[in-house]
Amino acid sequence: MEGKDPLLSVRNLTVRINTPQGEIIPVSELSFDVHPGEILAIVGESGSGKTLSGLSLLGLTPKDSHIRGEILLRGTPVQNLTETQWNTIRGARIGLVFQEPQSALNPILTIGTQIEEILTSHPGCVQVANQTTFIRSLLERVGLQNPDRIAKSYPHQLSGGMRQRVMIAMATALDPELLILDEPTTALDVTMATQILSLLIEENRRRKTSMILISHDLSVVKNCASRILVMYAGRIIEKCDRSRFFTEGPDHPYSQALLRSRPEGGEYTRKNGPLEAIGGQVPPLWDLPPGCAFAPRCPRADEKCRTTVPPWKPHSPVSDREPARTPTAEGSLCFYPGIRTQ
Ligand SMILES: Nc1ncnc2c1ncn2[C@@H]1O[C@H](COP(=O)(O)OP(=O)(O)OP(=O)(O)O)[C@@H](O)[C@H]1O
Ligand SMILES: [Mg+2]
After folding, report:
1. 140, 157, 175: which is the final residue of a domain?
2. For 154-194, how does the pLDDT look when each residue is reduced to its tens digit (9 = 90+)?
3. Residue where one domain finishes, among candidates 227, 244, 275
4. Are 181 and 171 part of one and the same domain?
5. Residue 181 maps to which CATH number?
6. What is the C-alpha separation between 67 and 28, in angstroms, rounded?
7. Does residue 322 sit within a domain?
8. Positive or negative CA dihedral for 174, 177, 183, 188?
9. Which of 17, 153, 154, 307 is the most exposed place for a label (fewest CB within 10 A)?
10. Which atom of ligand 1 is nearest to the CA of 183?
11. Count of the separate structural domains present in the chain
12. Confidence at residue 283, expressed as pLDDT on a 0 to 100 scale
């Protein structure tokens, strides 16, 4: 991967939304790269901004929102594209598996028609000799038996796991170079989840495509990802290699707590003691504490953490791929001295 230009570069991506409670910043100053062939995981508790970050990368931000920062796809800025321009990228160059397949599928069209629409809206994107055979093979590839029946079905006639697999089939139909998978296995049983993940990893290796895997399931992340971004209250609080994350452990107290709350192979992580829940809750975005957003729950927080964001002092040299981040006045970033970037 070294020396190759990133497929996707995100710089200081910030999303502001006007809500009845006031303006919130659910995605704040996100900066990261995704390299060709890489599987990058984004983890974090519910509400940390994972889905919104993924949607922003495809220009799918909510109404009443304002986006700032840069999204570069193979070096070309895409953050200010028109809807028509975005539509040439969505599905064709970046595929998305939505967290909630039920709401992403059109309820009044059969699955087959929805796949046909993808093909007709991106003519020439993939060579298809026979549409029926193509749709059948797509559905078979994600482990759906009786693909002809599935193609004739409406979304409500399928189970949650079937819909999730249909979404994966649709997102990969045009062979996009980047696939964003938002909790792709939550509706699947363990066997099917393993099969689907194996399929995606196989495709990733064969076609050298990249993936952003959004998941709160660290077991899934451990099996797939090469790098991990940990999000908290809309910010990336740590970037870590997969091997380091799961062997030496991450540096940030929040990432460490997340890891300790992971059941391992059906048993608790005995090495680190019993399974731990992280006390307290993610603070509401309209009422973030003045210092570090994790400070109220952090066993290592001191008075300083509660009032100011500690200065950024990288443990090892910052990657030259990404600019060094500096704490911002509005920030809640827990970059205490000694934390490692990579
Ligand atoms: N359209 C919207 N309007 C207002 N707030 C929103 C909107 N979409 C998301 N949010 C808020 O942004 C924050 C991040 O939401 P997001 O869906 O990205 O979280 P998540 O990390 O994906 O959580 P989960 O693990 O539960 O899927 C949440 O506080 C959510 O309430
Ligand atoms: Mg989500």
Report:
1. 175
2. 999 999 889 989 999 999 999 999 999 999 888 788 887 88
3. 275
4. no
5. 3.40.50.300
6. 10
7. no
8. positive
9. 307
10. 27
11. 2
12. 87
In a domain? residue 222: yes
pLDDT at 252 over 80: yes
- Domain housing 19: 1-93+177-275
Mutate to test the pocket of ligand 1, among 52, 58, 65 (most ligand atoms within 8 A of CB): 52
Ligand 1 site, residue 26, Cβ cutoff 6 A: yes
Q: What ligand is nearest to the CA atom of residue 230?
A: 1
Tens digits of residue pLDDT in 106-116: 999 999 999 99
Helix (H) or strand (E) holding 139: helix 131-141
255 and 110 housed in the same domain: no
SS3 69: strand
Residues 113 and 129 occupy one common structural domain: yes
Do 114 and 76 lie in one domain? The reply is no
Closest CA to 16 of 35, 29, 34: 29
Question: Is the domain of 165 the same as that of 33?
Answer: no
Please tell me the distance between residue 51's alpha carbon and the centre of ligand 1 in angstroms: 7
Pull the structure tokens for residue 207: 């076609």
Beta bridge partner(s), residue 230:
43, 238
CB within 5 A of ion ligand 2: which residues?
A: 50-51, 99
Angle between helices 160-172 and 111-121 (to 10 degrees): 20
